[in-house]
Amino acid sequence: HASSKQPPLPSPLRFSKFFQSNMRILVTGGAGFIGSHLVDRLMENEKNEVIVADNYFTGSKDNLKKWIGHPRFELIRHDVTEPLLIEVDQIYHLACPASPIFYKYNPVKTIKTNVIGTLNMLGLAKRVGARILLTSTSEVYGDPLVHPQPESYWGNVNPIGVRSCYDEGKRVAETLMFDYHRQHGLEIRIARIFNTYGPRMNIDDGRVVSNFIAQALRGESLTVQSPGTQTRSFCYVSDLVDGLIRLMGGSDTGPINLGNPGEFTMLELAETVKELINPDVEIKIVENTPDDPRQRKPDITKAKALLDWEPQVKLRDGLPLMEEDFRLRLGVDKKN
Ligand code: NAD
Ligand code: UDP
Ligand code: UDP
């Protein structure tokens, strides 16, 4: 089916595809943490054909192993900074490293992924007339001066800092989405995702929930970065995926915040992990990294009203589900 020069289908035909035949869906970054859970959910619908394009920088085939060989599934090794010529009806554009240690590892590549990668996916969406959803981030609010953060807040972002490749990159990606929407009439959706956790997170990606759970299971001290009073709001991955699918299916372009409004300090998170997973470990305060936002909590009024969405899984219920997955991967028994 992949043909480079095929013109977009005339709109009545394209429209009918939404009601009659299969929906062909591209998920960029589908081998990653959120992407692979999204693929699982999309594959449950027998009318969906799913194509994943991923360069395996932070993702892995392992996350998709149950779909490899399935007739409705296809996996392509592809870097989104290169053009991609395929025919699809919808694009979930997730490709981008999400964890600070990975996006800071090659910042120039990160910004290329955000800017050129998003441009390419918009060019593809334009050519084939697909609806495209961008997974933006709460980092577009930077170190916010408004709390909690509504979508109307423009943010407080350092343009030349070490996180800028990611947060400014996502801000440009959002700009590109809206310019293609206004200039070329593209159907766009933008989700601003707040911290998400769950099974299949990279064990050593340096993020706070994966760090604390791995440390608790290995019997190491939980490393709270100073001062420890900074806050985050953690959304379980199944809730997040549900929000993404509702956003894609709905009629609002966004941006829409998707996150769990339950707000915790990093010290509270450490106490909770200690209590639930390993009461014997210590909590120690270590040095923080530059530009660390002091507080973050989504205002999800818009998602509730427009998508009828709100998270169902509480932190105390989600952490044990992630613990199970980490135990298996780290080979640590329950008795430990
Ligand atoms: P992840 O690192 O697990 O997944 C990203 C995937 O993109 C990986 O499979 C990686 O190999 C792939 N990728 C990276 N660069 C690529 C490129 N140039 N070409 C093709 N593939 C590429 O991260 P995640 O947590 O699953 O995040 C998915 C998306 O959600 C990202 O866009 C991220 O910015 C966004 N997001 C995540 C969170 C979170 O808390 N996890 C929060 C806000 C936004
Ligand atoms: N593009 C792509 N797949 C397509 C169509 C376009 O990857 O099916 C890329 C293309 O290489 C270009 C980008 O998307 O770099 C933007 O495309 P657009 O047509 O909007 O702009 P133009 O090619 O006119 O600069
Ligand atoms: N953090 C921590 N200990 C760790 C890793 C992170 O206390 O081992 C803190 C970090 O300083 C930040 C918060 O946890 O305040 C969330 O960090 P993460 O990298 O998970 O996400 P982000 O900063 O992107 O929200």
Automatic annotation (TrEMBL):
This is UDP-glucuronate decarboxylase. It catalyses: UDP-alpha-D-glucuronate + H(+) = UDP-alpha-D-xylose + CO2. CDD domains: UGD_SDR_e (cd05230). The keyword 4Fe-4S does not apply. Residues 26-320 form the NAD(P)-binding domain. Belongs to the NAD(P)-dependent epimerase/dehydratase family. UDP-glucuronic acid decarboxylase subfamily. Its cofactor is NAD(+). Pathway: Nucleotide-sugar biosynthesis; UDP-alpha-D-xylose biosynthesis; UDP-alpha-D-xylose from UDP-alpha-D-glucuronate: step 1/1. One of its GO terms (molecular function) is UDP-glucuronate decarboxylase activity. GO terms for biological process: D-xylose metabolic process. It is an enzyme of class 4 (lyase).
